[in-house]
Amino acid sequence: MAGIPGLRPPRPIPIRDRSTILFVEKGRIDVLDGAFVVVDERGVRTHVPVGGFACLMLEPGTRVSHAAVALAARAGTLLVWVGEAGVRLYASGQPGGARADRLLWQARIALDETARLGVVRRMFQIRFDEPAPDRRSVDQLRGIEGARVRRLYELIARQHGVTWRRRDYDRETWDAGDVPNRCLSAATACLYGLSEAAILAAGYAPAIGFLHTGKPQSFVYDIADLFKFETVVPAAFRIAARAGRGAVPGSLEGAVRRECRDVFRKTSLLERLIPAIEDVLAGSGVPPPGLPQEEVQPPAFPDAEPSGDAGHRG
Question: In this predicted model, what pLDDT tens digit does every residue of 277-288 receive, in sequence order?
């Protein structure tokens, strides 16, 4: 990953061609002999092909060196600091950065009520495979969507033979939650990490959402919701059903992550995320950014052409 002296570093692997996510806990992440490694308490190294992952989820007990963060940034891999089992998201390290043209396009849409409604209507159509009802505001569509989501949870739980009450969990008492809710929380954490990696790689801002607003990951929730009931919700309920039969050896959350990993591969999710972002924003009717205007002042020291995805800095 570090490259050979005298040669240009390798081009980062596009997001769509990577593996999805990797969870790391109780280890020191560093760069040794030019490679990204995790060192456990016994000093045993585990090499991680960091450039081949879209996102690394760092759980409690993980320490990261400056060299490791720099290498992950060059590789365009998102680092996300999460709580145990992904129950909380504390911070993330951008793999690249928002592109000014795409960020301004996203912000312009979010600030225009008509354009924003167009995006929300497009997201509704993608999620439920039917046009959104006419003459409805964003708040009204949010209410309609919430009712449908509750019914979807009930339906998918019933299909897998899982007893479902409602979406409810307490972050302060994680182990006290029921099995289906714990499985869902672990599964959605996987999807959120992957969605944020795609948003950043494409040059957009995670905080500028349309249906969700006011949170650091508002746009992450918007994009993740497009795929949630196709991918992680069935995966979570499958593991919950197995757990009810006593057929989940080891960690419940670990089983959920492995199930999500397999679902992400089967559905080619990474290949679909960035086109989905462009699709929903196009629903605004606002033209996408074009070439810079002639009167724009050029930089004094032009940057090299980016070698990775649209939002990658390197």
Answer: 999 999 999 998
For the chain, the domain total comes to 2
Query: Is residue 288 in a domain?
Result: no
| Pair of tokens at residue 181 | 């809710």
Cβ neighbours of residue 207 closer than 8 Å, sequence gap 6 or more: 215, 216, 217, 218, 219
Total-model pTM = 0.83
Q: What is the CATH number of the domain that holds 38?
A: 3.100.10.20
Is 2 inside any structural domain?
Answer: no
Q: In angstroms, rounded to a whole number, what is the distance separating the alpha carbons of residues 235 and 50?
A: 25
CA distance to 33, 72, 177, 268, per residue, from 69 (Å): 15, 5, 34, 27
The CA-based angle 35-98-194, given to 5 degrees, is 55
Structure tokens at 221: 């929730």
Contact 75, 12 (CB under 8 A): yes
In the sheet that holds 27-32, the strands lie side by side as 45-47, 35-39, 27-32, 62-64
Query: From residue 199, how far is each of 4, 78, 130, 248, 296 by CA, in Å?
Result: 30, 11, 25, 33, 26
Q: In order along the chain (314 residues), what is the average pLDDT of each group of 10 residues?
A: 56 83 90 90 89 89 93 88 75 73 93 97 95 94 93 95 83 71 90 90 92 93 96 96 90 90 92 94 90 61 65 66
**Residue 192 structural domain:** 100-282
Take residue 47 and report the two structure tokens written for it.
């090499």
Q: Could you report the per-residue pLDDT of 211-243, keeping only the tens digit for each?
A: 999 998 999 999 999 999 999 999 999 999 999
Same domain, 66 and 117: no
- Can you give the length of the chain in residues? 314
